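dude i think i finally got it to work??
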Amino acid sequence: MTTVIVGACAGILCTVSFLPQVIKIYRTKSVKDISLLTFCVFTAGVFLWFIYGLLIKDMPVIITNTLIFILALTIVGMKIKYSKTVNREKEEVVR
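look at this
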């Protein structure tokens, strides 16, 4: 039971740590300091942790990595979307 509590607490802290970044990007639409490659590799790693959790049937690992995967994928999506917006705006200024 203690290991489940420790795992759940670790999962909550790791998941919550991504919320400020997601909220900041959403509000500011600024992704210039976010590395797309880093977040893509990280997201792939989190997905593998999710698979690992399924294989060992560990709910804290499954739940935590599902939530982190969603948040990381959200950041990747916003990076792609908002980078294109900035590039279009730069093109318009040049014209």
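Residues 2-94 form a domain with the Monooxygenase fold (CATH 1.20.1280.290).
im so relieved honestly
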